[in-house]
Amino acid sequence: MLEVHAAGCLRVSSRTLRSIGFRDSSDVKAELVIDDAPRLERLLLPYSHLNDCVTIRIIRAPKLEILGPFSPDLCELLAFQGMGPVGSANSISTVKVLAVGCYTYQLNAVLDILKWFPCLGKLYVTFGRQNLPHYDRPHPMECLQTHLKEVVLKYFNGYEQQIDFARFFVLNAKVLNKIEFHVREDHYNNEFVARQHTLLQAEDSASPDAQFEFRKTCGSIDYHVSKHIHDMSVADPFADKVDA
C-alpha cells in the first residue's frame, strides 16, 4: 500500500503486504487496524502530528520492524500481541527502528512509550520548535540496557530541557554508540557544538562507545518518509541527507 487517505475505520488483513503508509487528512476520527499482516515490516505514518484524531491498532504483525513517525501524545497507538494490550509484560519485541515526535512538548509521552519496545535499536525524536516543559525521569527501560545503539534528535536547538532529554540517554543507554543532533542552520556553529558537548556530560556516559554528532538539519522526516513508503531498498525510511 503506497498511501491511504481515510476517515472512519480501515482494517487490513494481508499475507503479502510488506509496507503500509497511512495518513488521515480529515478532521474526522480515523482508525487503522492491522488485523493480520504476517509479512508486514513497515508501518509508516507521515504527518500524523497534524491530526489528533487517529488511532492505530496492531493486532498481529509478527515481522513489524519499522514504525512511525507518530506523536504519542496526539496519535493513539494500541497494540495487542496475544491476549492483552501491549505493556511491560506484553511488548512489541520485533520493532527495531522507531520514530516519534514531540509536537505538544510532552516528553513524558515519548519516554513512556519506549517500554513498549524492548529490542529497539534506533530511535528518532523530532522536537517541536518551542521550548519544552520539564518531565519526570522514568525508570530504566529494557531497550536502554541491551539494544538501543543510536538516537537521532531532529530540530535540536540546545534548549535546557532538550539537553536534559539527550542527557537521559547518555547516562542510561548502556550500549549506545551514537547520538546524532540535527540542528537548525540558524543555531549551528562551532561555539554551539562545543557548548553542547560540555553540557551533555560525555565523561559520565553509561556506554564507553557513545559518540555525539552535530549536523545541520535537512528537511522534514515526514516528507522523506512519504517518498519511500514502498521503496524496500531504502533500509531506513526515516534517515535523511544532512550536512556535517
UniProtKB/TrEMBL annotation:
It comes from the Eukaryota. InterPro entries: F-box_dom-containing (IPR055302), FBD (IPR006566), LRR_FXL15/At3g58940/PEG3-like (IPR055411). This is FBD domain-containing protein. Pfam families: FBD, LRR_At5g56370. Residues 142-215 form the FBD domain. Signal peptide: none annotated.
